[in-house]
Amino acid sequence: MATITMENAEEVKRRISELNLEHRDLDRAIEALELNPLHDELQLKRLKKRKLMLKDQIFMLQRQLVPDIPA
């Protein structure tokens, strides 16, 4: 993995914060939708899929911040 500069690290941290915020917002939207007995199942599945994609993106960005340790 390429070495990350301090400037890039700050950009990655900023992006992680944005994605975490969106992830929490989706969590609330999913919870509200599930409380509605007449909710749209397709919309619910799309929101859950988006939430999983965000989680994966957050994980990949966090890995960029961890320095490589030689074996």
Walk me through the structure.
- By secondary structure, the protein is an all-alpha fold.
- The protein contains two helices and no strands.
- The protein has one domain (6-62).
- The protein is elongated, with a radius of gyration of 16 Å.
- The two termini are 14 Å apart.
- Residues 2-64 form a coiled coil.
How much of the sequence is in beta strands?
A: under 5%
Give the overall silhouette: elongated
User: What's the number of extended β-strand segments?
Assistant: 0
**Main sheet record:** none
**How do the helices and strands follow one another from N- to C-terminus?**
HH
Distance between the termini: 14 Å
How many structural domains can be distinguished in the coordinates? 1
Helix count, per DSSP? Answer: 2
What is the residue-averaged pLDDT? 92
Quick tags:
single chain; 71 residues; mainly alpha; elongated
Describe how the helices and strands are arranged.
Elements: H1 6-35, H2 41-65
Quick structural gist:
The chain is an all-alpha fold and 71 residues long. It has one domain. The chain is 77% helix and 0% strand.
